[in-house]
Design a protein that fits this description.
10 helices; alpha/beta
Length: about 270
């Protein structure tokens, strides 16, 4: 069974791959509907960039970017919608507008209220691993054993969420490819992803268009030139047990996964 494909909708002016292209509700809605037509199982809506060096935005600005978009998508599509935010007040408003998943790059650690808000909302929660915060996370990240340390950190965050009342069955984990990690760290996590799926939670994997691909192909300076690497990483994550792959290029990823599924059934 192939993983679910989570299509990325960045309603921001400064995201690393497509910043500014969908920086209005109408343009972002058109993009979201295209991703649905391309085969997305889930849409992930973000109103604040978390690329390396990104500057934070106010809750009011983030709400203005995501809530009308989520409401507009919900009138046209009944599928799962994820809100990509670290702010509990944004998550609450997004769920009220129709989101069903809270995707938090801080694993519910940004605010002391986050775990309790997640429990109160009752939505699915993606707990992502990140060392530091977006402005500084790529400043010489260091690990002794990246797989063991990421596993331990995610286990601790899942325990904190459950202690606050989040149901275990509603927790997904994400190793945070590119978030406070070198290219070697990211490749190691991918190659050993099955050690993280062994933690017993569905795993979300997102390496689409990331700089790790450029580390192996120096000519791929433009994120749009990293499709081949994105597909390779998504397929390997699938082989290693990922439940969800988070991608920009939905149609191409769905096609690749269909072929992989057909081959495994022969």
């Amino acid at each position: 069974m192939r993983p679910q494909v989570m299509g990325i909708v960045n309603a921001t002016p400064d995201s690393f791959s497509d910043g500014g292209r969908f920086n209005s509700t109408d343009r972002a809605l058109d993009h979201a509907l295209k991703l649905i037509a391309d085969g997305a199982d889930i849409l992930d809506i973000g109103g604040e960039s978390t690329r390396p060096g990104a500057q934070p935005v106010t809750p009011a600005e983030e709400l203005d970017r995501v809530v009308p978009l989520i409401a507009a998508i919900r009138t046209r599509w009944a599928g799962p919608l994820s809100i990509d935010t670290m702010k509990p007040e944004v998550a609450r408003a997004a769920v009220a507008a129709g989101a069903t998943v809270w995707n938090d790059v801080t694993a519910l650690s940004f605010s002391p209220d986050s775990p309790a808000v997640a429990a109160d909302l009752g939505c699915f929660v993606v707990l992502m691993h990140m060392r530091g915060e977006p402005r500084t996370m790529q400043d010489a990240p260091t690990y002794g054993n990246v797989v063991a340390e990421v596993a331990a950190d995610l286990t601790a965050r899942a325990a904190a969420a459950m202690a606050a009342g989040v149901a275990r069955a509603r927790i997904w984990l994400d190793p945070g490819i590119g978030f406070g990690k070198t290219a070697d760290h990211n490749l190691t996590l991918t190659a050993r992803l099955d050690e993280l799926t062994a933690l017993g939670f569905p795993l979300v994997y997102g390496a689409s268009r990331k700089r790790t691909i450029q580390a192996l192909d120096p000519m791929a300076t433009d994120p749009g030139d990293r499709l081949g690497g994105s597909l390779a990483l998504a397929l390997e994550a699938t082989r290693r047990g990922a439940a969800v792959v988070r991608v920009h290029d939905v149609r191409e990823t769905v096609q690749a996964l269909r072929l992989l599924e057909a081959l495994t059934e022969i």
